[in-house]
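Q: What would this complex look like in 3D?
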Amino acid sequence: EDQVTQSPEALRLQEGESSSLNCSYTVSGLRGLFWYRQDPGKGPEFLFTLYSAGEEKEKERLKATLTKKESFLHITAPKPEDSATYLCAVQDYGGSQGNLIFGKGTKLSVKP
Amino acid sequence: KAGVTQTPRYLIKTRGQQVTLSCSPISGHRSVSWYQQTPGQGLQFLFEYFSETQRNKGNFPGRFSGRQFSNSRSEMNVSTLELGDSALYLCASSLAGGGEAEAFFGQGTRLTVV
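A: Here is my prediction, written as structure tokens for the whole assembly.
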């Protein structure tokens, strides 16, 4: 059974304090791994798609990396506006087109 | 370019009633997926439609159903509402629904069952 586990559940950082969020996954065949950001009361906002081990993508203060078993979302010198819940999702080649399997998310709080 | 539009944004229904939610995807997108989000379970896949056909379905009871129209707009229906159906219902659209295409989410419909 496909599974996605995110850690930590919650993370509090001071502005400028860099850190990483983890997403561990178990799938029969990875079609793609996705990172989303979700603000309270809103739908998830797409950040990155990663397809193969070793791939990296960057956007402003965020950098996503992928290995065969996990993905990391690195946040460099975060600002208060980076506070949100970050969601990781995978899509399995095994059959589920259009079906993203989500982790429970990491709630990030960045204090000024 | 307009994003994914979900209506209504908020709904309050009584246990036993039924409800219909609507989703208009991004222009040109043919795949629409529906998800239920609750604090305890997170985001869970309901079903996906592509070119008016249900292509995949998650592990939800038959009270949850959906359809897609020729213009790619989609509706989901929940019959005989239960208190546990209270959740944020999210719709996501993508070009084709495959892993090569990103899914973009709407703002969701907040359903409260009393």
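A: To summarize the key features: Chain A has a mean pLDDT of 92. The two ends of chain A are 41 Å apart (CA to CA).
Q: Very helpful, thank you.
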